[in-house]
Amino acid sequence: MDLIDGLRAFVATAETGSFTGAAARLGLSNRLTSKYVAELEERLGARLLQRTTRKVGLTAPGETLLARAPALLDDLDAMLANVTEDGRGFSGSLRVSAPVTFGEKYVKDMLARFAAPHERLVIDLRLSDAYIDLAEAGIDLAFRVGDTPPSALKRRKLGEIRSVLVASPDYLAQHPAPERPEELAQHACIVDTNRNDPAAWSFGRGGAVQTIEVRTRFMVNSAQVARDLALAGNGIAFCPVFVLGDDIGTGRLVPLLSDYDTPSHMLSAVWLAGRTLPRKVRALIDFAVEDVRAIGLDPQNTG
Description:
By secondary structure, the protein is α/β, with parallel strands linked by helices. The chain has three domains: 3-85, Winged helix-like DNA-binding domain superfamily/Winged helix DNA-binding domain (Arc Repressor Mutant, subunit A), CATH 1.10.10; 92-159 and 266-294, Periplasmic binding protein-like II (D-Maltodextrin-Binding Protein, domain 2, 3-Layer(aba) Sandwich); 161-264, Periplasmic binding protein-like II (D-Maltodextrin-Binding Protein, domain 2). It has nine helices and 13 strands. Strands 3, 4, 5, 6, 7, 10, 11, 12 and 13 form a nine-stranded mixed sheet that branches. It has a two-stranded antiparallel sheet with strand order 1-2. Strand 3, helix 5 (100-115) and strand 4 (121-127) form a beta-alpha-beta unit. Helix 1 crosses helix 2 and helix 2 crosses helix 3 (30-44). The chain starts with a helix and ends in a 9-residue tail after the last helix. Residues 1-59 form the HTH lysR-type domain.
């Protein structure tokens, strides 16, 4: 067993709390991960982990080793990356997490643009609308919309994403467009249940904010499907700009209540705190900042 492999297996197991989580992070089998840790313990002559049927915990020697091993491994990775990536581009794997619709509409293409000059780089994109524990899942970088990360994570703001009220010309031909937020009570509304308080839509004007409980026609946990339903004439949707593409520019969807301010949500890149950030992760964060600005993902980007 290579000492570095043993240290990586130990750190991953300690940080995820299980051999299963460590194996997923490292791309190894449970058996091999457990074997590496056992061989490291034998080499050091000390038990590092307390095994139970559900979880592993640290012994006193394990706590001592965990206090220093992650930084040592990070420094080693950074040193090797400086040698191998100069002139040859980034290599190895980069595991990224994003919400499903945002990942499908934007992140996948942004990652393709980032990876294009790095032929030896493997992108592993995980899409989920559920909260992902970055340590347990072995995620290098996550893109998140709206939520404030816990203290265990660091964040870089990429921008603000607005939401826009839209309906199709066919729908508006049958139902006069609302001129005030309270008139939404007379309309069929398509509600995205991924939002906090999804049927309460807020509008601002002159410093005052008005919140309307809308009449729900469809409820769906996808901004993309809400857009599709609006496009088909099924009602009014409140969509983040990244799902609309050129729908407004081409007239497929009509913006409503445009003289009111609509909510925006912070778009962030987040990663685990307390670890040295690999060069390729730092490079991806910097690339994302410029990419969001360059493609005009948010016309009112203040990031």
